[in-house]
Design the sequence.
């Protein structure tokens, strides 16, 4: 199957192809030309200047029966090759001004995966080797497969015939150029006549109206340069070059003038919006400066100094409301930060004072509030009756710490007047165990006593009505708890818990309030988990 390719032509219109190619860092390709017998062709022109690396090196005249040899290499390995035979060539003289040449080629041999599709004829071996060699030459700058032998001297008779042929060709090309010039002149005259008629039929009036608008734009915006519009007999000037009076050209002028007018209107609208809303933005400047920030005002938006180019707040009521909301958010964040810094400073000062007083440090109390076994909790209560946040939570099992908030509660320093309490409970039927970890020397405040009573009541309410899963024994009452203050925790009314077969009996499950003996409990476990468990 043949295909047509575009090729070059000499100044005299002879079809020609360039030998080209060379190697790069990791590979390369090349195309060269062979005569019908596979030998080197003679070049009509050899390049010696300009950008030669991997480019065209020698121009070779071709005709039917010549061969094109293509080769490609990669990292020193021959990867592909193709031999194409020129079936025919064609050259067109375009109005005596230039030549356009094509060649019809058909594939003779192909090379891939280390072998040819069919045996390679001996006459191609030299050309193929040269093509692979050229493709491998790093930044090849010269031809490798051309005949450089001394040319045969032309006889007077041969020279006479060649000059006669050239004269004939020159005359024909001169005629073609003259014909084209005449055709162009005729077409130009017809176009100018049609342009003059179109001007008289209304296009001129439309351009005159556009010129009035354009002059008004220029006078009202002297600092802006608009395209000049000049009307002539057959042509008008707008921007670059002369233009005929056609519907398309006139519509182009009208579109541009209309666009410029819209720009002026939009600019005026933006100026009016800025004049209306910028003073309203400026009323917020004292609050902005209190935050250590500044506002900037652009043509279309107000924005925080250094804010995003695509952000900002438009000169509209909605933009003003959005800015105020953002300002309030920043003020709240600044106030929160100030409170946190003040609290941190106060805490650091109190911790320093407590350290001087020798108050306890590094309090660690285990926390586990889920399930019915091994429960434990700790509190540090300030003189005003509030629980102070822990400084950290430590657990060798990060998963349980994150999922259950379980681990050692850590307070680095007990502060003056603080009360430290601990509580634990081994299992449901076990007694509540209370420990006063630290009691302030000056005694407890009323607020601290009220908080202690609240904690004891919460524990009482949480465990009231629960019974041991196996023993059925109810959880003991809290009673006087830590024994602080003259009060006893009020027992909560018994709670009723219903247990179904789908209830989970892991260590995070609350036991049923129904009395259950050991035999019944074992039976339930066997029914749920299997007898062999």
Sequence:
């Amino acid at each position: 199957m043949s295909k047509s390719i575009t090729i070059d032509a000499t100044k005299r219109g002879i079809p020609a192809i360039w030998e080209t190619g060379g190697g790069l860092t990791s590979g390369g390709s090349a195309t060269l030309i062979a005569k019908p017998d596979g030998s080197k062709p003679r070049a009509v022109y050899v390049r010696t200047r300009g950008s030669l690396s991997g480019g065209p090196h020698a121009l070779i005249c071709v005709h039917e029966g010549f061969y094109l040899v293509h080769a490609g290499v990669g990292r020193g390995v021959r990867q592909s090759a193709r031999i194409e035979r020129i079936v025919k060539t064609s050259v067109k003289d375009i109005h005596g001004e230039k030549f356009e040449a094509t060649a019809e080629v058909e594939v003779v041999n192909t090379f891939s995966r280390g072998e040819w599709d069919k045996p390679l004829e001996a006459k191609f071996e030299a050309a193929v080797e040269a093509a692979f060699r050229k493709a491998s030459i790093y930044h090849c700058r010269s031809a490798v497969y051309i005949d450089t032998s001394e040319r045969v001297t032309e006889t007077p008779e041969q020279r006479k015939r060649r000059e006669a042929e050239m004269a004939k060709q020159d005359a024909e090309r001169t005629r073609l150029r003259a014909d084209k010039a005449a055709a162009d002149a005729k077409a130009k005259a017809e176009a100018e006549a049609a342009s003059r008629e179109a001007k008289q039929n209304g296009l001129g009036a439309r351009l005159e109206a556009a010129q009035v608008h354009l002059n008004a734009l220029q006078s009202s915006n002297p600092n802006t340069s608009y395209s000049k519009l000049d009307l002539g007999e057959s042509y008008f000037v707008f921007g670059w070059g002369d233009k005929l009076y056609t519907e398309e050209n006139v519509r182009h002028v009208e579109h541009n003038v209309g666009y410029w007018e819209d720009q002026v209107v939009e600019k005026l609208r933006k100026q009016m919006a800025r004049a209306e809303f910028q003073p309203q933005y400026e009323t917020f400047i004292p609050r902005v400066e209190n935050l250590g920030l500044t506002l900037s005002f652009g043509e279309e938006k107000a924005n925080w100094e250094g804010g995003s180019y695509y952000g900002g707040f438009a000169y509209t009521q909605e933009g003003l409301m959005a800015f105020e909301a953002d300002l309030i958010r920043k003020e709240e964040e600044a106030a929160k930060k100030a409170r946190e810094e003040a609290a941190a400073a106060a805490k650091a000062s109190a911790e320093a004072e407590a350290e001087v007083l020798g108050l306890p440090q590094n309090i660690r109390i285990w926390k586990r509030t889920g399930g019915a076994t091994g429960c434990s909790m700790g509190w540090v209560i300030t003189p005003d009756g509030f629980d102070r946040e822990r400084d950290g939570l430590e657990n060798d099992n990060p998963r349980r710490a994150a999922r259950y908030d379980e681990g050692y509660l850590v307070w680095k320093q007990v502060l003056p007047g603080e009360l430290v309490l601990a509580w634990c409970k081994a299992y449901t039927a076990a007694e509540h165990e209370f420990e006063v970890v630290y009691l302030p020397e000056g005694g407890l405040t009323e607020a601290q006593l009220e908080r202690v009573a609240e904690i004891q009541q919460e524990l009482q309410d949480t465990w009231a009505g629960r019974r041991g899963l196996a023993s059925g024994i109810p959880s003991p009452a809290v009673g006087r708890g830590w024994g602080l203050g003259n009060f006893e925790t009020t027992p909560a009314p018994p709670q009723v818990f219903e247990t179904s077969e789908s209830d989970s009996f892991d260590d995070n499950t609350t036991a049923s309030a129904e009395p259950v003996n050991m035999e019944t409990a074992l039976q339930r476990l066997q029914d749920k988990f299997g007898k062999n468990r």
